[in-house]
């Protein structure tokens, strides 16, 4: 059992997306998340990892185990140095996609977690932070 409280997974390829999901599953189990909460966090991680690879040109998923009093949580940050998102409001609307996806990546991920932060600068990159509490 790992006692690390933070780390990162590179996101450059399809295999890395799978590795990020496996890491999130391991961490969610370690935190004793319910099966539903595990699934929500793994799904959000999968969507955001794919966005990082496909739209951001690759980046990293940073993870952190959180403790807030008796509450435990898992925070994931997805960072890339891609083209950025010109219109954050539009990007967060259900059904909007800049590619061929279903347009559920950002808005869907936001609904799966307790805390969601999105920062993006055109020409610099994007950082999406999601947190789920047990």
Automatic annotation (TrEMBL):
<dbReference type="Pfam" id="PF02518">
    <property type="entry name" value="HATPase_c"/>
</dbReference>
<dbReference type="InterPro" id="IPR036890">
    <property type="entry name" value="HATPase_C_sf"/>
</dbReference>
<feature type="domain" description="Histidine kinase/HSP90-like ATPase">
    <location>
        <begin position="36"/>
        <end position="134"/>
    </location>
</feature>
<dbReference type="InterPro" id="IPR003594">
    <property type="entry name" value="HATPase_dom"/>
</dbReference>
<protein>
    <submittedName>
        <fullName>Anti-sigma regulatory factor</fullName>
    </submittedName>
</protein>
């Amino acid at each position: 059992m790992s006692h690390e409280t933070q780390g990162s997974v590179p996101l450059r390829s399809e295999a890395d997306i799978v590795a990020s999901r496996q890491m999130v599953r391991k961490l969610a189990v370690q935190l004793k998340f319910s099966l539903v909460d595990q699934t929500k966090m793994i799904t959000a991680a999968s969507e955001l990892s794919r966005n990082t690879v496909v739209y951001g040109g690759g980046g990293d998923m940073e993870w952190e185990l959180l403790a807030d009093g008796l509450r435990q949580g898992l925070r994931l940050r997805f960072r890339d140095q891609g083209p950025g998102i010109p219109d954050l409001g539009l990007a967060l609307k259900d059904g909007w996609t800049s590619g061929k996806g279903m347009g559920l990546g950002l808005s869907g991920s936001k609904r799966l977690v307790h805390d969601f932060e999105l920062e993006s600068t055109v020409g610099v990159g994007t950082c999406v932070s999601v947190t789920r509490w047990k």
